[in-house]
Design brief:
44% helix, Arc Repressor Mutant, subunit A, mainly alpha
Length: 502
């Protein structure tokens, strides 16, 4: 079994493309097959430098490294279509020779005039005989035009009065009447093939057995079937599966690259720096997603395992995946569900694994804590983090003193007349012999008993003094990690400021 992911290097890879790559990868690995990356760069006008490297980096971040492809090796290369032009010319000439394709000399201006006269104009069996092509021109004139270098394209000659059928593994039997189909351009005036020609030739020569792609290509598949027939390759035609759309969170239309900014979440795997702010996007990686969590989320965005299981390792996804359980209808992109997956993975992740991913988040704010401190910090914060950035946002006070104090809670909990009492407690805690959570707690409890206080009188004040907020891990574990001197300094400063706030 051989499957391919064939993106165009025209910019950042949309998350829908990653899902397509994932499903191809899962099916290939389930059957011990090959997952191939092919770069479809025949549209040179839309080529964007750096896009191919972005695609590779995105796949590798998700753990979907190709078995074959540009930079990965393989016996069916080259894997960039721009390096395979001679092959497309060879097979296009074969199609013209056997009468299944023809040369067309219509200029862009002439075609535009046709569309202006008739907005529903389609270059098909009904129109081809009144156009300027090798079906209407004398053979000698066609030869002269080509010899003189006149711009021309090669079009597929769609047969008339036929039904083109194929079985789609998601949608079942699909049929098109040939009168619905236009004579697609196979070879453009610049000598580059269109997607249709290059796609079929490459899939055949690379021995692709299954094609999983987006539903926008469903209608084009009829042309591809005709090309397989015309080239005599019908017996080697791959199985097709067309994926449902990924919809916006509100279910209203396809999720586009602009929707990330509109809804405030990433729709690309990695950040992309475009020429303008409008063409620059934040990625899932930079947003703080773990690749395993994002992959798990994407796998269930259009496919279900038929069980209640939601958390899957990559190996479990490979074992459970089947094309038959891909949904036919579109699936909404639920960012809250994506965050839930990420939170579950953060909670369960190995500490050393998180260490390497949390470290750069903290370093971005100018702090380089040692491994021991950072590991302890991660253990205290992991259940309070939905994304990796939350380790900083929800726990910055482990690295610098509170930016502000929760004034509402200070006014509710603080009594200026008790400042001396709390100064005494701070002094006792500073002198605790073994500065651990257990010892700090024991000393605090003893103080509460001796002074006839309640836990609600004391613990909120300690938490506000240390972190500035009522949120966060257990106060005594926080104090242990921050250390004796830092806690004492913060408490003394806080008690003074509490009086001012009150």
């Amino acid at each position: 079994m051989r499957l391919r992911f064939a993106p165009s290097p025209t910019g950042a890879l949309h998350i829908g493309g990653v899902r397509t790559a994932l499903y191809n990868y899962l099916l290939a690995k389930k059957h011990g097959g090959a997952f191939i990356l092919r770069i479809e760069d025949t549209d040179q006008g839309r080529f964007v430098p750096g896009a191919e490297d972005y695609i590779k980096e995105a796949l590798e971040w998700f753990g979907l490294a190709p078995d074959e492809g540009p930079g990965y090796g393989g016996a069916h290369g080259p894997y960039r279509q721009s390096e395979r032009k001679a092959l497309y010319h060879k097979y296009t000439a074969q199609l013209v020779e056997n009468g299944r394709a023809y040369y067309a000399f219509d200029t862009p201006e002439e075609l535009a005039a046709q569309r202006e006269e008739n907005p529903a104009f389609k270059y098909d069996a009904g129109a081809r005989m009144r156009m300027k092509n090798s079906l209407t021109l004398a053979e000698e004139e066609v030869g002269r035009r080509i010899k003189e270098g006149e711009a021309h394209v090669v079009r597929l000659k769609v047969p008339t009065g036929e039904t083109v059928s194929f079985r789609d593994q998601v949608r079942g039997q699909v049929s098109f009447d040939s009168y619905e189909l236009d004579d697609k351009v196979l070879l453009k005036a610049d000598g580059m093939p269109t997607y249709h020609m290059a796609n079929v030739v490459d899939d055949y020569l690379m021995e692709i057995t299954h094609v999983i792609r987006g539903e926008e290509w469903l209608s084009s598949t009829a042309h591809h079937v005709l090309l397989y027939q015309a080239l005599g390759w019908e017996g080697q035609m791959p199985e097709f599966a067309h994926l449902p759309l990924i919809l916006r969170p509100d279910g209203k239309g396809k999720l586009s690259k602009r929707d990330g900014a509109r809804f405030g979440f990433p729709v690309f795997p990695l950040s992309w720096e475009g020429k303008t702010e409008e063409d620059s996007f934040t990625g899932m990686r930079e947003f703080g997603f773990l690749p395993e969590a994002a992959l798990n989320f994407l796998a269930l965005l259009g496919w279900n395992p038929g069980t209640e299981q939601e958390i899957f390792s990559r190996e479990e996804l490979v074992a459970a995946f089947s094309v038959e359980r891909i949904n036919k209808s579109g699936t909404r992109f639920d960012i809250d569900k994506a965050k839930w997956f990420n939170q579950q993975y953060i909670i369960k992740a190995d500490t050393d694994y998180l260490l390497e991913r949390v470290r750069p988040v903290i370093a971005a704010h100018g702090y380089e804590p040692g491994d021991a401190f950072l590991k302890a910090f991660i253990e205290l914060m992991r259940e309070r983090a939905v994304t990796l950035d939350d380790f900083w946002e929800n726990g910055y006070f482990f690295f610098e003193e509170p930016r502000a104090y929760d004034e509402k809670m200070v006014r509710k909990r603080w009594d200026p007349e008790r400042k001396g009492l709390f100064d005494e407690l701070a002094g006792q805690l500073h002198l605790v012999n073994n500065y651990t959570a257990g010892s700090i707690k024991a000393q605090t409890e003893a103080f509460i008993d001796e002074r006839g206080l309640k836990f609600g009188d004391v613990l909120p004040i300690l938490r506000l003094g240390v972190a500035g907020t009522m949120k966060g891990p257990a106060i005594f574990e926080m104090m242990e990690l921050l250390g004796r001197e830092e806690v004492d300094r913060r408490l003394r400063k806080a008690f003074v400021q509490f009086n001012e706030l009150k």
